[in-house]
Amino acid sequence: MHFNSESTVTSVRLPIEQIQSALIHEGLAYWRYLCRNGTPPLRADFDPADVRRLLPYTVLTEIHRDPLRVRYRLVGTRICEVDGWDKTGHWIDEEPWQEHAEQWLKDYRTVIDTRGPLFGRDALTYPDRSTVTFEWAVMPLSTDGREVDMCFELEAFEGEPGLVERPLMARARGE
Fold first, then answer.
1. Domain map of the chain by residue range?
2. pTM greater than 0.90 (yes/no)
3. Cβ atoms within 10 A of the Cβ of 163, count?
4. 64: helix, coil or strand?
5. What is the assigned CATH class of domain 8-172?
6. What is the tens place of the pLDDT at every residue in 3-30?
């Protein structure tokens, strides 16, 4: 499977209370542990060894301003498999699904402005009509303790053992 311009994305933003993924909650607990006096964690305090189990589902992004641009600094192996390419080192505006870039940049702007995490659920539908559903989190980081200039992100795919507590589609159907 390869996500390309013929693929579609359905996305909703959710409060943390509606996120079912154990992986997202584990990552959020680590992020909160690193917070200092209500400010986003320092990038220097974020140690990938502390979240080794989460790494295949992790994205680290750099935030550039004026104009706002996002660069993928690290993309986990499982995310690369699902997306069909390794976007490490690429900019968000280089992705094949540009029709969604504007909303994603708004999401990053929200994280920058609120200095807090954002959560949601997406469904990717491929040209062959297969669909991958996942929950996600974008959590701010700072290199200088003041400006949000990086993000720690997670994507938890439906149906992967130990990552989602209950299948997302079953919840959506009320089962």
1. 8-172
2. no
3. 23
4. strand
5. alpha beta
6. 445 556 577 889 999 999 999 999 999 9
